[in-house]
Amino acid sequence: MRLLYVSSFFFLLTQFHFRMIKNIKIGFLAPYSSIYPEMVPSLISGFYSAIPEKYHNIFQIIPEYIGQGGEKQVIEAANKLLNFNQVDILSGLISYRILPSIIPSIENRKKMGFFFDTGEYIPYTHHISDNVFFNSFQMWQSQFALGDWAHKQFGEKGAVITPIYDGGYHLQSAFRQGVAMAGASELDFHVLNYNPEGSQVTEQIQELFQQLKKASPSFIHALFCGNEALEFYDEFCKSGLNKQIPLIVSAHMASDEILKQVSNLDLKFYSASMWNYHSKEQTNLQFKQKVNRFAGQKPDFYTLLGYETGLLFEKLIPEFQKRDWNEIKKRLKTETIEGPRGKRSFFLNSEYATPLIDIEKIAFHANSVSKIVIEQGKAMQYNHATYEKIHKENVSGWQNPYLCV
Questions:
Q1: Is the pLDDT of residue 262 over 50?
Q2: CA distances (Å), 238 to each of 8, 202, 281, 368, in order?
Q3: Which has the closest alpha carbon to 117: 154, 73, 171, 159?
């Protein structure tokens, strides 16, 4: 009887101790995307895939919908998470354009921010906050590498085609700076007119293609997302330019999600990749295995962003258990992880890790896609003077995260 009493006492003591350990509440700003409708679930499943199951209950993720990620919705959602839900970390997919509006709320409440982005904007050149950290897919870096490679490979002068939406970010600016730093003196830009009643592509691009036939640029760089990317490929095949003038496309246009929808077309083009799903590197194989075991899904780059963050947070489990926020923030400024796309760091300064970039040749045959890495791309260092130049040149103020349309 005494043994039963002692066992019950220790059980209750254990349960009391468990309840005394508050879990870490992460408020997650969750935007809408018709292009990647599973972006938020994918990122969250990637996060938990990287953390051993016994530690899953340490982190509680509280999503808050922010529509397409405009400033008003983000501020309201952030304040709700910080004030009402009392989250410890404010996180989510947001645009760098919104950051200055929510950082005061994070700092005044002595909280921490950890945000994700596709890399549609280059990071700020000035200090943002000691309490805010990032994991970016850095798509702009692939654009810079493509510009540098395109000029060295094909020479003067190329042409860029983009609709207003895609042209409103730093993606086209980064490509142009890559071309310029490779030695180019000229680059033509063609921005399609906005047409709210119909397609931005099919109703106007054939006329542009006829102009390009006469101008005969050394290459064409296409920057489209969503259905417009699919429409561009279809119209490019019809134009007579296919395989006549080299085509270079953005990383999103060369994603598996897009390519499988146009694999019936007779296309050949070039792009840049910062993560190879089919890589045989051990870190990539482990990533795919863990995601499959936890979520039973094929990972995409949003899953990758979550997974990398999970690897980072796993390193800080003892600090999270003690809720030692000063030590957590200190560690996050210098901590790195080795993931499927190499070394990653998470604090914006001149030592922020640059990505490994593969220049790829992509072709289709019998409804199958062939990707061949033909060269290593050049990334821009994070202390380069060009950063400030790109920020000053881009004044559109697009607020929603790229692909949130």
A1: yes
A2: 77, 11, 39, 20
A3: 171
Q: What would the pLDDT profile of 93-149 be if each residue is shown by its tens digit?
A: 999 999 999 999 999 999 999 999 999 998 887 788 999 999 999 999 999 999 999
Residue-wise DSSP of 350-372: TTPPPPP-EEEEEEEETTEEEEE
- Rounded (5°) CA angle 16-320-82: 90
Reported as half-sphere exposure (CB side, CA atoms, 13 A), residue 310 has a value of 27
Identify the residue whose tokens are 């005044």. Answer: 108
The reply to whether 2-137+279-345 and 140-273+357-393 are identical in fold is: yes
Q: Which CATH code is given to the segment(s) 2-137+279-345?
A: 3.40.50.2300
Cross-strand partners of 24: 59
Please name the residue that has the structure tokens 């962003």.
Answer: 305
With a cut of 60, say whether residue 19 has pLDDT above it. Answer: no
- Reading the block at residue 52, the tokens are 């051993």
Report the C-alpha gap between 381 and 131 in whole angstroms: 23
How is the chain split into domains, by residue range? 2-137+279-345, 140-273+357-393
Question: What is the value of pTM for the model shown?
Answer: 0.92
| Token pair for 187 | 């680059």
CA distance 315 to 306: 15
pLDDT digits (tens, 9 = 90+) for 221-244: 999 999 999 999 999 999 999 999
Instruction: Give the span between the Cα atoms of 162 and 190, in whole angstroms.
Output: 6
CA–CA gap between residue 189 and residue 383 (Å, rounded):
27
Mean predicted confidence (pLDDT) in 352-379:
92
Element (H, E) at 141: helix 139-154
Q: Dump pLDDT digits (tens) for 268-321.
A: 999 999 999 999 999 999 999 999 999 999 999 999 999 999 999 999 999 999
pLDDT value, residue 21: 56
| Cα 121 from chain centroid (whole Å) | 10
Q: Which stretch of DSSP H or E encloses residue 297?
A: none
| Spatial distance between the Cα atoms of 213 and 204, rounded to a whole number of angstroms | 15
The residue written with tokens 């800080």 in the block is: 316
Domain 140-273+357-393 fold is Rossmann fold (3.40.50)
The packing angle between helices 139-154 and 171-181, to 10°, is: 40
> Which position has the higher pLDDT, 396 or 316?
316
267 to 226, 276, 318, 362, 366: CA distances (angstroms): 18, 21, 52, 8, 11
